[in-house]
Amino acid sequence: MNDDRFDVIGRVTRRQDGHAMVTGRQLYSSDISLPNMLQARVLRSPYPHARIAAIDTSEAERLGAVCITPEDVPRVKYNERQVSVPAKTYRDRTVLPDKVRHVGQGVVAVAARTEALADRALDALDVEFESLPAVFDPHEAMRDGAPQLHDAVLLGETVLPIERNIACYREAVEGDVARGLEEADLVVENEFTTGRAYHGQLESKAVVCRPEADGGITVWATAQSIHNTRQLLGSLFDIPLSKINVQRVPIGGSFGSSIQMNSSVAVCVALALKAQKSVKLVLTREEDMYDHCKYPSNIHLTYGVKRDGTLTAGYLKTVVDIGGHNIQAYPLLGCMAGWFVSLYRLPHLKFEGTAVYTNKAPACAMQGYGNPQVTFAVESMMDTIAEELDIDPIDVRLKNYVGLGETFWGQGPTVRSVIRSCGVEEMLLKGKAMVGWEGRGSSTSKTGRFRRGIGVGRGFHTSGTGAPTPGEVIDYSTAMVKINEDGSVDCLTALMCHGGGTLDAGAKMVAEELGVPLDRVGISPSNTRSTGYDVCTHATRGVYCGGASLLRAAQDVKKILFDFASRIIDVNPDALKVRPDTSRGQGVVCLPGAPAKRITVAEVAKTAQIKGWGSIIAVVSHRQVNCPPCFVVNFVEVEVDTATGQIRPMRAVAAVDAGTVINPDLAAGQLEGGLCRGIGLALLEDTTYKPDTGELTCGGYLTDYKVYTAQDMPSLEDLSTFFADTYEPSGPFGAKGVGEAANNATAGAVANAIYNAVGIRLTEAPITPERVLSALTRDAEQLQQGR
Amino acid sequence: MMTKRRVTLTVNGEHVEPLVEANALLVNVLREELQLTGTKYCCGTGQCGGCTVLVNGEPILSCLTLAVAVDGADILTIEGVAKPDGSLDPIQEAFLDHGAVQCGFCTPGMILMAKDLLAHDPSPSEERIREHLRGNLCRCTGYHRIVKAIGSCGQ
Amino acid sequence: MGNTRILTREFEYVAPETMPELLALLDRYGPAATIIAGGTDVVPQLKYEKISPDYLIDVTKIAELRTVRRDGALHIGAAVRLRDVKAYCRDNETYACLGDALGSIGQAQVVNMGTLGGNICTASPAADSALALLVLEARVRLIGSGGERVVPLDAFFRGPKMTGMEPGEVMAEIQVPAVVDHTGSAFRKIGRVAGDISKISCAVAVQSDGERCLSCRIGMGAVGPTPMRMPGVEQLLSGRAIDAGVMDEAADRIAADISPLTDVRSTEFYRRRVSRVLFKDTFDQAWKRVQR
Ligand SMILES: Cc1cc2nc3c(=O)[nH]c(=O)nc-3n(C[C@H](O)[C@H](O)[C@H](O)COP(=O)(O)OP(=O)(O)OC[C@H]3O[C@@H](n4cnc5c(N)ncnc54)[C@H](O)[C@@H]3O)c2cc1C
Ligand code: FES
Ligand code: FES
To answer: What is the pTM of this model?
Structure first.
């Protein structure tokens, strides 16, 4: 797809970091090695709930290990996620705890010359646990008399007592749901669950910390936000930020699992400060799986609808099992409300969300942040409504979706804006034709052992969390752009790329704006000392927010460039243009129509240097005052083996409305990857716990936590992607996001496809063969009994 | 303390003789002793293929391989795939051209598996490619572009 | 929690090159030693801290354990890699079910590393090649310093991770008898994803005259303490003309005779339920493969 409006935007280009990746030269945190570095290991709780009665490290220390216990670390209660404003941040953990709340929680950490030695030191530790009763089910946890995980936490600076393990509660009401349901011709109601899927990023979390001579520290960590990591370390360890340098390091996948500062970062820093040596701490896979998972959901959903398919009311009630710590449940509930109300127009609505502590690994954001969970329920319900009213499911969606010109609040009640670009209809109709929707038939027409079905799901994610007024979530980015003396360009920002090509997109925008060939625009390595604040690469904000800050900086730089050029070629700066001249590998500043009035960007920059005019450089901090929805549509075809309950995804069409697409290949790659993970959420993935021990059923090993392989996915021919043709007025060059949107609609589409194949509504994800077969058996028995 | 022994390896064409303990795993010898960090640890239990290297031309999992057990072997890691002058192997080029790389963590293993496959089957069917890659997990891409890239290398 | 990145267990590694050396080492170290071949089971077991040997004895450098020989029966050295057995099966259709089983095993890398002896000695109820070999009526030759013996495979398995091998013994080879004429065989399994270890598996070898089942061997995996033969069903089918009714009867019997559990991979209900159709599918495929 080449867009004539642009030189590089929308063109397929190689990513800048690709060469290092295909040659094995890309250094991730787990690859970093420093002279004289110690290796750390962490003793982890075998109990789901226990008080730590005594710790003896003497034997381990005799082996030469440096040890830290809860006694050696700051006692400050903190929250590892620094994206919400302080007043809305729940703080319930310390660097090391005196009470463990899930199996696998770290208790004591050791560092030694080699990992083997560190492991021996772990064995030599003597820790006495006083086991406490544990609770694993959120509904049980809310009962009176259930084991209490936290007595009190801090909300901002206020002490907040915790009752019945409820970490937080959120409600949103508009209109009067009871009235809305009364006005309806049909009321539908169902309960949906999704699992505690594990991020499964291929690089387990890693951190290296070097104590510096001035009392400061340098940190290389798996992190989606280097600045938040730095600020948190500063407040925990009472080190001025000017002495903390957190390096931006490539990340081997994240999917939301490192929005927060990983708990091992503080542990590693504490060890390094005590040892006064560099320390490296890389989680093993099993430690990583005990560290985090996706927020599961349990959703009770009710809709009222008129005979013609118009929704009159919606009521969503959810209980979220957050595990042992509250990383970001409060904004999560706000977003879940936002996803719910912004999918379909609801004259009357109500949302109630309760987040509950249990003795399991803490849940955190994972691609979609509650959105795939809510959309699974909502999109399943849209099909139920269509079926009940005998309307085409696509028409129900077209009738009710929140679109152009309407207000939406995807990021929660405090983040409202108006939709200014929307490709929903285009994607639904085009996708419908591509997938052969009309020929899909109804479930009742299908017979035989293997039955195919096609389902649709639609959804959206917001591009960032920006809004006209500052809300509960911090959102802005800082970027520096500089034209070097040879006409090449440096881009410097704390923005992260997790593989989706965020920084490449930024570089393309700068190249486009400055008229410099893309291969002369470099992305500088960055760290917290050399960059201004960037909140985090999360919430699908990379291109829309981070990219916009780079674009703004480029615009400022262009002004300086034109000003300097005008002094040299004597043309009013307002009349100048700049275009890439690929034959010269240079940007050329020119006056259109006047061939004599031309000068390369390099000549301008060099002249400015020689004459002492200064560097062509600009730094910009920028907040987007909008967070437009990037819409998605998925069509999925599955084949159900009714004898074994196995489901195979056979074919899929995935589309996104990302506004102007900056990197078509990488954006399509996001859709394909999101689809694969979405199918995993729908059919395969969950972390379950042994009720007697509180251990993960899979032990934390990938041996029994399965993710799909290349052989499980539809063939090249059977998977298509496309982009809606839209332009977002508030986005850089008209762009919005893709990232999280890519998997939001998938689970719903899969469930709808299964329904279309076998006529059974499965509401419990993952929809495993075991669940399918049980449902088919129940269904057959009911049929026999004549319903 | 275990005794260390010297093993003789040819790694990416270079003769090396690291001193290793009996329980040292090949992945760690490559990553730590030889500082070839392109070989990745991701699961340690044989499930992900991130630690794949070619031993005597065949892909194995270095996280399940004792270094002492491959004494004398010829090993190719991702660092040895490009030509000595730095120019890329066609598979590497294809990965870049098809957008088959996202976070890049699975890429070394994927490229080595592709090398192995193409060495035995110069124009593999898509089905064959998918089967051959099923031991290598990629969490980012959904495999689509990886399969496409490898397919494009077929003759 | 163990450590899947490094081996924390300390041990000595020895790699004898002849059988007498190997047997002497086994005698000398006794229970302190564990045999390692491809290591695809041993190394994970070390990481999970399920075994704690002081010595690992590598059997893959012994030439006679690495050879395949044919004299009517097929003699596969215990340390022959799954990859080589798979290639052999590709060229020799008579062992179709073994080829199926090897084709279904995990990753190309595992097939390169793992050995046939290792797959059997692991004694996992879900071991794929073991199940195929069971219905091919394979025998294993065990050698100890006191002598050698040949044991039928179904007598070899005693329970999960338990075999009839005595201390000091090593598996030298797997003997697969020549397949009688008019026999077809097949292996199928159900996993969570492609190449996964079995939730449930089935192997069938059937001899037929085109209408009747003259004799058959049926094995089910991951539904009991060991890979299991199903003598009841074998008897039920022997001499019978095969039609849908008979197959239903046999499938019911399969479901009744297995003893599945609920574990991390699947449930008892599911395994019992799908055992019927998995058996039918496998039998069907084996039947179609009968050469006439
Ligand atoms: C990722 C992965 C996927 C897998 N998928 C499958 C699968 O799909 N199906 C399946 O069946 N298996 C699977 N396995 C299990 C394993 O790979 C096989 O069982 C393999 O054949 C074991 O062979 P090995 O040579 O590696 O055994 P090793 O690990 O070396 O040994 C296994 C056991 O056998 C003993 N042993 C080995 N050789 C001898 C001998 N000659 N005499 C006496 N004892 C001996 C060892 O002491 C040990 O107890 C998988 C393993 C992994 C890591
Ligand atoms: S790290 Fe070796 S297979 Fe995963
Ligand atoms: S590109 Fe990230 S795991 Fe494959």
So the answer is: 0.97
